[in-house]
């Protein structure tokens, strides 16, 4: 997108606001380099990632970015095999710990919500716990190494502590013995060695090495000979400590080098996540929403606000075009908000196409434009001797050379700065030329001729910024469908101009002009009310549709739950019946055993009566259960292979595969199983239908040799497109309905080339990026004709 439009629309100020929420220099650099994406797939993906980050912020709070720093310099040094200082190692340790915590943060779910894009990004994070622990065990601060870094360092520092304690006792003893020769009864350090302040006239009284003297020369700092040996031991231990620290730092730097690929990858991913969450935090501050994105030029911004105006003062506007009209002509008084409206529509589109949520109401929509051109403001130059008109016309000439049907064009005061008659005619000609190219245009003007042009031209609509005559102030609200009314007479009357002057002024204006102004005034209230009611009705319709879809799903789940409950109850009843039969059989067996042992005929008759009574009761119970099963659905009479039916015994739908055999059995498919059941046991379900069998193309090709996907990673764009085209021909001949083209994520160049090839491919019905679980935006899923 051209830099001039981004500069005029003040996109850099939005980026500066987002940078306030970024933590690392790397992510701030990413924000500085942010420009609108050049295809609609990337726009939708980056808007969705920002939306997911915003939901995460609201549900889980701030992400675990504590201690995250810019580690690019440290990683580059480690990659070259250099030794890192403690501060650099500590930053890398914090970054690695942040990566591990972020993995846990994204995996922790309160419900079954999915953050597909963020989860896909975080899938590349690698926990390096060993490196993390090694760094934090060894380093306390940016200049401090822990005693636990190594056993050798621990021993050296313990010995140093003992020597220092010993030398302090020794030097205190020397001070007491030579106090009369000393300037002060205390010791000090010179070059890491203990010395005492001796008066210069008594330097021979304290034998030792002179290290320094005071500025006046009255005091000499002498290291007594008795301290030389122990001071040498301390110095030697300090050198050993320094060498051991250097060895530890070199060892830790080696650990980083061994894991440099994972470290570098984690750093890049965390910088990207910091960038995404900075956008999300900014969206939260402006109450941003994720708009729908289309590529057919439809703009529908509901209660849109300019993001750089104070939220307490900004006035929201409904801005739309692209359906009934493609050009919008805005008229109204100066300082009424026309330019702000232009900048709002332009800036919100730039933000959306850069993956930034916009300050508007839900259900707003933006269109993907290849270019946004903006001629806003006066850019006259003394050096170039350009007048206001010339500077505007220079911009307009440049715009008309490049604009096409994928362009949004914003004109501020079109045709201004020259003779009104010629300027108005020129403005109409410019708008007509661009309209015939199907450009989307929003223009502001003072010329009344453009109001008439918009009224009589299909595809062009009038709009105005509202002006309150009572308060003599603009309301800054945009009124689409209403051309602006000058209100000069009303304003003059309220400011005290005499009625006779105003009436005389009216006489100088043609009656047609006055009638036109009156018509505008009468239409304004009616149109505003109708437009407001229509948009409110549309919003309510969308909300009602969402509620209906929501409750349809709930009703379907309720029906399934009830059906499952009935099936479970029937199975439990059959189990109870089966157990009762087994118990009854056991009782009858016992009765026959007793009968065998000897009972008279009367007892036998009584036992037989009880047995018959028990059998009748069981048969009655079984008939009730069977009747309930029959009520579950009608029996199937006309059987066709491929028909869907319900099998009560399994409580699930099945597909009939064969016609009934001589015994009345049919083969059915239940999930992955194929079983034989009695036709009489099958029931018609409420949704019984014939499953269409996929027609197969009869070709001389072994379909088993055609894979459902092809891997194009590592190829250049031309070779990948050739291989993809050849594979699609084979898949089409093989009868495959859906295939996957694996191109990887990378820079997106390979994906763009393949998608451009798919647009005009004869075998392609539709295509889309992979969803969660399919490979995300590293895969394009293609539906074949």
Explain this structure to me?
The chain is of the alpha/beta class and 785 residues long. It folds into six domains: 3-128 and 259-285, Orthogonal Bundle (MutS, DNA mismatch repair protein, Chain A, domain 3), CATH 1.10.1420.10; 149-251, MutS, DNA mismatch repair protein, Chain A, domain 3 (Orthogonal Bundle), CATH 1.10.1420.10; 292-506, P-loop containing nucleotide triphosphate hydrolases (Rossmann fold, 3-Layer(aba) Sandwich); 565-630; 633-693, SH3 type barrels, CATH 2.30.30; 706-784, Ribosomal Protein S8, Chain: A, domain 1, CATH 3.30.1370.110. 51% of the residues lie in helices and 16% in strands. The strands form seven sheets. It has a six-stranded mixed sheet, with helices on both faces. A four-stranded antiparallel sheet has the order 3-4-6-5. Strand 1 and strand 2 (144-145) form a beta hairpin. Helix 20 (717-733) packs across helix 21 (749-759). The chain starts with a helix and ends with a strand. Residues 379-386 and 691-704 have low confidence and may be disordered.
